[in-house]
Specification:
With about 325 residues, the protein is mainly α. It is built from 13 helices and no strands.
Length: about 325
């Protein structure tokens, strides 16, 4: 509706210092829909949907690469960022790559064997790319924390974005590892079953390592908000959704670790986290509706629509 009424805002959204960082959310939404279709639809619809989702998987891989690169190139060409204003939201344009691995893991559970190996290679390659890009941005964020203290209270929800890369990669490694035996040809690397067994164990322990990293970023992000919650100084901004989406990856990773190691206590923790996350979703939704009513977002010069960093609407 906004782009239809104010058509110049569509172009401006690609070069706005804050808004441009969230363009990747549209690609992530599309990829998540495909992932859910693979998880819940294929076993009920038959082989035709399996084939259709495989085509859409490769289409999404290409879209994720082009979209992620395109967003960063536009940002690097049109904007200037400083470390003092850095938040993990800078990672967000890489997020479309981070759901390729989990999708590949789900697909290999149902695809014919001859189609699985290319999906695994593509999923691991793009998942690794997204994770490594995120890791390099992590280093800038840690440097920013060491030299500039915590971000402003309105920007702190973006710290939770740092949970996602490691958590999504945990799910990708374990899902792919679980299906390697049915995916590898018998003569793969000399002995397909042995290669699958070794790689499954490796994937599980690498997953546990990254799960710990995701938990560390989650706990540090929670701790950073303690003073804000205690004083009640936070007002709604769109990055409040960072309280929710990256944590879905952490919940999924927790269930994957619990299943991989047959650890019931971890699975129970995952259930508790799911309940808290569901309640959090309703709270953030309510706060967003309230902010719209109070004209704190989706209003000229409010929220992500305001002019900042030398940017002015329609000036470029």
């Amino acid at each position: 509706m906004r782009f239809y009424i104010y058509r110049e805002t569509f172009r401006d959204s690609f070069i706005h210092p804050s808004e441009s960082l969230f363009i990747g959310a549209s690609l992530v939404s599309f990829g998540t829909i495909l992932l859910n279709v693979s998880q819940y639809g294929v076993e009920h619809a038959g082989e035709w949907l399996d084939s259709a989702v495989l085509v859409l998987f490769w289409f999404y891989c290409g879209t994720a690469v082009v979209g992620s690169l395109g967003i960063y190139l536009v940002m690097w060409s049109t904007q200037t960022f400083t470390v003092s204003k850095m938040t993990p939201v800078w990672i967000f344009p890489a997020y479309p790559l981070l759901i390729v691995g989990p999708h590949a893991g789900l697909l290999t559970a149902t695809l014919p064997q001859k189609q699985c190996l290319p999906v695994i290679i593509g999923g691991v390659a793009l998942q690794g790319t997204g994770f490594m890009v995120s890791m390099m941005i992590y280093s800038a964020f840690i440097y920013r924390l060491m030299t500039q203290k915590l971000p402003k209270e309105a920007l702190r929800p973006g710290m939770f974005v740092s949970v996602g890369p490691a958590a999504f990669t945990v799910s990708a490694l374990i899902l792919i590892g679980d299906n390697l035996e049915r995916s590898f040809p018998p003569d793969f690397m000399g002995d397909g079953k042995l290669a699958a067994f070794v790689l499954k164990i490796t994937a599980s322990f690498w997953g546990a390592w990254l799960w710990g990293l995701a938990l560390w970023f989650f706990l540090s992000s929670v701790g950073a908000h303690w003073s804000s919650f205690r004083r009640g100084h936070m007002h709604f901004v769109l990055p409040f959704w960072s309280f929710i989406f990256p944590q879905t990856a952490l919940v999924t990773a927790t269930f994957a670790i619990g299943k991989s190691f047959s650890c019931r206590p971890i699975q129970i923790v995952g259930v508790v986290m799911s309940v808290v996350l569901l309640l959090g979703w309703f709270i953030v939704l309510g706060l967003m509706i309230r902010a719209i009513y109070l004209r704190q977002i989706l209003w000229p010069q409010q929220g992500e629509d305001k002019d900042e960093g030398g940017f002015k609407r329609g000036s470029i």
